[in-house]
Amino acid sequence: MSSRSRTVISGGLVITASDEIHADVLIEDGRIAALAVPGTQSWTADRTIDATGKYVIPGGVDAHTHMELPFGGTFASDTFETGTRAAAWGGTTTIVDFAVQSVGHSLREGLDAWHAKAEGNCAIDYGFHMIVSDVNQETLKEMDLLVEEGVTSFKQFMAYPGVFYSDDGQILRAMQRSAENGGLIMMHAENGIAIDVLVEQALARGETDPRYHGEVRKALLEAEATHRAIRLAQVAGAPLYVVHVSAMEAVAELARARDEGLNVFGETCPQYLFLSTDNLAEPDFEGAKYVCSTPLRPREHQAKLWQGLRTNDLQVVSTDHCPFCFVGQKELGRGDFSKIPNGLPGVENRMDLLHQAVVDGHITRRRWIEIACATPARMFGMYPKKGTIAPGADADVVIYDPHAEQTVSAETHHMNVDYSAYEGKRLTGRVETVLSRGEPVITEREYTGHAGHGTYTPRSTCQYLN
Q: Cβ-count burial of 106 within 10 angstroms (0-12 exposed, 13-18 middle, 19+ buried)?
């Protein structure tokens, strides 16, 4: 694109978290320059996109992905190149991935390693959270430095003893530090110590199939850990963001904390809204495709998650995209469910599934944009550069056809994984064209982007805190 370039998107319904307006959109040099009543401005442009009968929405912000994540002796099957391309196909224009600190190593080493994986390979913009696996005086000091340079959120795990696990004392110290430096602690809330006992007992009884993964990782142990994380954050005077909430009992803990006025936030994922333990119980080891943590829950939990999204007790829907192929990766757990790599592919499906939720009456169109674009951008310090369509914002824009029908399938998806968690699901609504900072990445259902267009995005601190 030339140094001065202009695009006009005409005739569409512009939907943001706060508004639905018929407007023409002017893009100049990668940013939104103006919105106008349709047909009132005779803007000249290098490119005109006719969005008549379509939605014009902000590009999705997926604040929870794991490209190339090492897990259980293997690696997530999407690279930053394949994963960000698939994200673009699904109408997502920004991901926030997780850099991993290994025990015995510094935060900086982990962050540098993830920068090296991503740099020059991404089709869309990206940022990083930092997984803190080893809390000590040095890493606590490093947290301050990372916040200053735009890595403003830190993930801890109450699960996975021996890998990512932090005990309550380590969690409290990290929370106290984040209370001082403005960082946001993200928590994987499951009682991993208790779960490991239940895993051992189940395997001893010969209960080895994938469905037992869901049975040992009990909803009560998610709720207990959520409650404990909330109270530790309260003691530390720190905000808390609980990732991948799947159980109604955990939603109740978040709702109670928020009613008390605490700065506690919750994220859920499409798999918990659309899938259930029925999938984990699929025969012939097919259930392994649906092994993730927190696990899928019985179907009755779905209604409470949707309710939480409507009442704002849950604020964000991210994917926790962490794909492993069924052949050769998920199969590592044949005969022992505890060896199945945990994770589902979904970065390409989130925006469409949530539009289906609009069609089905679970949420409104504006709430769709709020939970998928605006709130994640605000939560992680990227708004209004990301997450909205307004003058000055990055021109991350999706032309969305709300009437197109599609059937989700591994045959047609762009994620580097050999199955779809939503195989055969029929959806109404489809991404047609995607701009990232004004550059067409998807043009009328054709990929026109390239690796290296996506740039690293440093973030400010959480915008929901005073």
A: middle
Residues pairing with 15 in the sheet: 20
Q: Which of 150, 6, 56 is nearest to 390 (CA)?
A: 56
CA-closest candidate to residue 421, choices 301, 279, 247: 279
Cβ within 8 Å of residue 214, ≥6 positions away? 277, 280, 295, 296, 297
DSSP, collapsed to helix, strand or coil, labels residue 152 as coil
State the DSSP code for 165. Answer: B
Torsion angle of the four alpha carbons 132, 275, 302, 164, in this order, in degrees rounded to the nearest 10: -10
Joined tokens for residue 270 = 């499409």
Among 429, 364, 363, 433, which Cα is nearest to 402's? 429
pLDDT for the residue numbered 1 = 42
Residue 451 contacts by C-beta under 8 Å, 6 or more apart in sequence?
81, 85, 120, 121, 122, 123
> How far is residue 294's CA from residue 286's CA, in Å, rounded to a whole number?
18
The Cα–Cα gap between 15 and 82 comes to 28
How confident is the model over 42-75, as pLDDT tens digits?
A: 999 999 999 999 999 999 999 999 999 998 889 9
Residues 420, 214: Cα–Cα separation, whole Å: 19
Confidence of residue 4 (pLDDT cuts 50, 70, 90): confident
Query: CA separation (Å) from 153 to 81, 181, 235, 386, 442?
Result: 23, 10, 19, 17, 30
Residues 6+ apart with CB under 8 A from 368: 15, 354, 355, 357, 358
Per-residue pLDDT tens over the stretch 403-429: 999 999 999 999 999 999 999 999 999
Beta strand 240-242 pairing with 55-58: unpaired
How many CB atoms are closer than 10 A to CB 334? 14
Its pTM stands at 0.98
Instruction: Provide the pairing of β-strand 92-100 with 184-188.
Output: unpaired
- Distance from C-alpha of 37 to C-alpha of 301, rounded to nearest angstrom: 43
Tally of CA atoms within 13 A in the half-sphere of 36 that contains its CB: 13
The answer for 191, left when phi > 0, alpha when psi is -120 to 50, beta otherwise, is beta
189, exposed or middle or buried, with CB in 10 Å at 0-12, 13-18, 19+? buried
Residues 6+ positions from 174 with CB-CB distance below 8 Å: 132, 135, 140, 143, 154, 156, 166, 185
Enumerate the β-bridge partners of residue 92: 60
